[in-house]
Input
Amino acid sequence: MQPDKILYIDLSKRSFYVESRPDLFEKNFGGAGVAIRLLLEECPQKADPLGPENPIIFAVGPLTGLFPMASKTVAMFKSPLTGNLGESHAGGRSASAIRMAGYGAIVIKGASETPVYLALYGEKVYFRDASGIWGIGSSYTVGRIIRELESEAGLRTIMRIGRAGEKMVSYASVIVETYRHFGRLGLGAVFGSKKLKAVMISGKHSLKVDNPKAYRILYDKIFQLTVKSQLMKKYHEIGTSSNVIPLNELKALPSLNLRMTSLEDAENISGESLAAKYLGRRVSCSHCPVACIHLATLRDPYEDEPYFYKTTMVPYDYEPIYSLGSMLGLTNTDELLKLIDEVEVQGLDAVSTGVTLAWATEAYEKGLVTSRETMGLELKWGDGNAYREAVRRIVSQPNEFFSTLAKGVEKAALRYGGLDFALSFGGNEMPGYHTGPATHLTFLTGARHSHLDSAGYSVDEANAKTGARLTPKQIAEALFREESWRQVLSSLVVCFFARGIYKPDIVLEALQTTGFKPNVTIEDLTMMGVETLKNKQAFKKREGFNYRDLRIPRRIVEVETPIGFLEESFIKEGVEEFFKLLQQL
Amino acid sequence: MGGTVDRRLTVLDTDKCVGCQLCMFACSRRFGVGGFSKSAIRVKSVGGVERGFIVIVCRACPDPPCMKVCVVNALSLRKGGGVMLNPSKCIGCGRCVDACPLKAVFWDNEADKPNICIHCGYCANYCPYGVIGLREVEQHATR
Output
């Protein structure tokens, strides 16, 4: 059974309809594959990312609700940060809920004049007035209120924005349940531009399969691999924050706006140290037993009231530790957790926020901006208080400087200077790896300029171990293969953490057993992956992307990687080779 | 007990629950389908995942209130506590749902009948953290 129903919602007209689109799902499975085709259909050329014409697309896949870890929702939209392809993935209960509500995808168009939130109970769609919750200071409170207002606890997802989304910060996130996010590329701002505060989705449809007996056998095989093999161990135990120490030792942990690649006291903010002193609870997305979501318990005494404590659960992962920790020289664990919490409260993308603040700190140091711009705020490496205030000002935007920071590091550097140390790629702020040329080639060539596109850091890390020196062409080929395969996974909305389990043979078996694609072959999968990548490229080109315009931040060639200094010509050649491959196939 | 031991599904430690809902998926999968429509167990947060989770499932009452309100006698006492549903008698009135103080009688919208836990323990096989398990029925079950 394929999830071929699409729910189209128009916020301007407050109307909706459902359409069956087997053509899309048969060819492109779901998730990223279907979402990019819908984006090409629904997003008019040169659309204003914050205009009513920019659609929000959510898509899930044929394995969602049937197998473990097919638990992601892919969101697509035109990004207010890059002005081009916006794609972000989130888990929580979002994927289960969309599928159980009976849909393969949801398209939200138009804009409301007054704040609104959507409540979807299966086929029923309600446009609820959100004026009473617009402007609430904390995204946590918004979640709490909607939990009480709506029913079906346990069977629903609640996606919502914080103040950052309302104020249309270009890298505002959408928070899912709690602690999961459509983080990157500014979906939160698109919600805000539509006056859409939240989307609640619930449903409990059942999903039929062709061969129930074979289905249960395959399910058990995948389940056993998940819980008994070593494949999920990293995510299951210490979590992604286990990257901190190895990257620090390798001298690949971007620190102080990548002026350094390791910090003396990085140990403080390592997964091991957080687990020992702060880990309070671990939680999972729906239909994933791994529980990679790590929550720290932060106990903070009230200064004015003895024996009163504020106890907060703060989510931590490698990326926020890098961007809000090492990049800002913030290695005091309590202070780092408080900053992560502030970013959650406001509803911002942690990576973009940290990288933007790191640039601002260096620009302040260098005198490109002064206390006149910062309105008296002294930006200093490791000063958590100042950074928390800066985060609040990025959201409230009291002057031109902070409204510019709210547009991301590229725009800020174009306005105030310091482009050489503005760490963005294709307009998106840099993820936490300075491992070698391949990681930067991923940031440059990846469709959404994210480390998750083709994981070049893995290529670098493997090469650092073996001492192999790949040519730009070889790296481009490896990244192209990886990014193409990841299109298959993200079209089936399989979590990338489960990529070691969902190898091609398991994917084929799952598609065949469920009856979704009884005759599918490896070649079909590969073709579909490449086609999805090409569709994304078609969208990007249509919106003005030209790989020759990609800016290589000078900083990355000035600071040594574990495999030596990078050369700009090498990187440029890698980019050329990658796009040659993309155009060829 | 005629040589067999009566067992019931028991919630052993909700503090270890991570909210993955694999138990809920397992329960529907017994019928060969995906999703939740046939599930007789539910996991939800204690008002936000930061505070942990609640596992709601039939506790196999020895004197089940759901059975007492069934007007067509579709529910009969199960050996070891709880009830068995005779779907051909059930008229889908939903009184059993209201009668359960734990809210452990769930509703199958597609069949328009209740989902009743039969304490088979299939769901517990998929709980990697030992939150739920089958236990022998004590004389006076208290948990």
